[in-house]
Amino acid sequence: MKKLQSLLSLFIVLLLMPLAYAGANELVIGNSAQLKVTLQSQTPDPVEPGQIVTVKFKIENEGKETNDDAIVKIVPKFPFSVYGGSGEKNIGKLRASSTGADAIVVEFKLKVADNAVEEETELELQVQIGTSIFNFDEDDFTIDIETQDAILDITSITSEPKQIAPGEAGEVTIMVKNLADSLLKDIKFKLDYDDDDLPLAPYQSSSERRISQLQSGYQNSLKFKMIADPEASPGLYKVSVTITYNDEKGNGYSVSDILAVTIGEIPKLKAYIKKSDVLQSKKEGKVTLEIANTGSSDVKFLELFLLPSDDYQLVSTTDYYYLGDVDSDDTESEEIDVYINKKVKNFKLPVMLKYTDANNKPFQQQFDLEMNLYSSSQLKKFGVLETSNSLSYLLFIILIVVGIILYRNYKKDPEKFSRKWRRRLSKFKSKKK
Fold first, then answer.
1. Cβ neighbours of residue 379 closer than 8 Å, sequence gap 6 or more
2. What 8-state DSSP symbol labels residue 98?
3. Global confidence as pTM
4. What is the structure's pLDDT at 228?
């Protein structure tokens, strides 16, 4: 019984062996046809994501002629799709010994997906003869997908502080991202400070930075410290930057760009009451306001606004004044008329300033300008108000008139005048007792 089973298994093996034998990209069908399929070409080579690629397969028959038509079918998988026609072609019966120049060439057009990655991607081909279907998906059927350029993108540039003051240092951060489909290596950034008109120099570091590698879709930052010349004028300065890097296949790339750095200082304005001829409540007078630029940066387009307050009433015709440009270490003043309300002891005048710095960046500040108020007696004590002498003059005149009258009475009758005043003095003394 065991011998019978062994003979039966051997018979089945011998029966199947001549039907089909596949090795590499060759296929033997029975003892007749012997197929060989080769990927002849791809155009373009390599192909970029989003492009159309034409692939050509050479179909050879090294055996006898087939009894049925051969149907060749492309089996596209991501990132490929059939473009502009059918994905299968009937090439008829395969003639015997149709090799070399006698072979049949089958052509397909495929669309590569826009989001395809950079790599060699396999294709699958089917050949159907009669009811039999045979798959060819060997490593030889690969399409080379490659982006034309390995793109390194500068996604952001930031500066801390946003404006580097003359004589001060700052730090510029460059954020880069790998937009290519493959690894980027040996990324070098070099800043060029050689321009004589550029008031910037490296500070506590070199002008070069390096990233050893950056994976596809990843980003990284590079930091550069620099210092501004103490005599630098405010403004926007351009620093040339050269970027070099290699892709995964060793291809080198070089890109030039511009790095913008702003030099300037936040303006320093001070507002105050310079002088006033009204120093008491319930009085009207002129108040002189002064704006001083105590910083090293010039101020442009300065506007002055008087804000409302319970401390005063504006007598001037306007609450807005345009002062224009105020250079560094310079002042501008404006005179206004006000009435100070009653019961105000410490006068506060709220004002608002609007202006731009040397780089046209807008600023706004509000100040409460204070001024002490005084009583009349305090002002007299300080010598601001003079003491009135009208009462003294009046008393002096009265004394003169009284003296003249007394003198005339004495001249008429000296003895009578003496008795009369003696009696009055004696009555005054008695009343006093």
1. 279, 280, 385
2. B
3. 0.54
4. 94
Give domain status of residue 416, yes or no.
no
DSSP letters for 255-285? EEEEEEEEE-----EEEEEEEES--STTEEE
Look at residues 218, 235, 263 and tell me which one is the last residue of a structural domain.
263
Does 348 share its domain with 277? Answer: yes
Own/partner pairs for 273-276, CB < 8 Å, 24+ apart?
273/349, 273/369, 273/370, 273/371, 274/333, 276/371
- Are 273 and 241 found together in one domain? no
Residue 72 φ then ψ, to 5°: -100, 130
- Collapsed DSSP state (helix, strand, coil) of residue 405: helix
Is the pLDDT at 19 greater than 60? The verdict is no
Q: Which two tokens stand for residue 298?
A: 């010039």
| CATH number of the domain bearing residue 207 | 2.60.40.10
Residues 99 and 222 in one domain: no
Residues 66 and 129 sit within 8 Å (Cβ to Cβ):
yes
Q: Is 390 within a domain?
A: no
pLDDT in tens, 230-272: 988 888 999 999 999 988 778 888 888 888 999 988 899 999 9
Identify residue 322 by its one-letter amino acid code.
Answer: Y
Report d(CA 34, CA 141) in Å as an integer.
19
User: What is the C-alpha to C-alpha distance for residues 245 and 151, in angstroms, rounded to an integer?
Assistant: 10
Q: Residues 143, 55: contact at Cβ < 8 Å?
A: yes
Q: Read off φ and ψ for residue 404, nearest 5 degrees.
A: -65, -45
- Give residue 23's pLDDT: 38
> Are 25 and 69 contained in the same domain?
yes
- Nearest residue to 209 via CA among 197, 226, 192, 224: 224
Classified as helix, coil or strand, 406 is helix
- Are 104 and 219 found together in one domain? no
Listed in sequence order, the residues at least 6 apart from 6 whose beta carbon sits closer than 8 Å to its beta carbon are none
Q: Which of the four pLDDT bands, split at 50, 70 and 90, describes residue 389? A: low
Whole-number Å distance between alpha carbons of 302 and 283? 30
Q: Final residue of a domain: which of 145, 179, 204?
A: 145
Q: Is 349 exposed, middle or buried (0-12, 13-18, 19+ CB in 10 A)?
A: buried
Check pLDDT > 50 for residue 15.
no
User: Is residue 227 one of the residues assigned to a domain?
Assistant: yes
Whether 353 is covered by a domain: the verdict is yes
Give the strands of the sheet with 88-90, arranged side by side: 88-90, 70-75, 124-129, 132-136
Expressed as residue numbers, the domain containing 258 is 152-263
